[in-house]
Protein: Pyruvate, phosphate dikinase
Organism: Opuntia streptacantha
Amino acid sequence: VEVPRAALIADEIAEVAEFFSFGTNDLTQMTFGYSRDDVGKFLPIYIAKGILQNDPFEVLDQKGVGQLVKIAAEKGRKSRPNLKLGICGEHGGEPSSVAFFSKVGLDYVSCSPFRVPIARLAAAQAVV
């Protein structure tokens, strides 16, 4: 699930899918309309001026992208209760993002190898 439309019609997709893997890097890019190649030109200014709290490619935007993940998870599991849900992307190794994914019922996260220790610790803390 890498585009907002897929998240919004997740119930239909779940009729033929056994799992959802949320590509949060692409979903973030498509939701914000930001190219990852261009954010370096303006994102630091947005953060400095308080337009954004964090780089949304590093810390999940829970109010926007996160809500799309939540909607898709709920709609998907309504159609297919045993649907496996997870994410792939850098958010899978960021502690507050991992906690959010746990809260909305995702089954797994994947991330870059160097982020695995952080992801494991964040996942353990999320269930405590």
Observations:
- The mean pLDDT is 94.
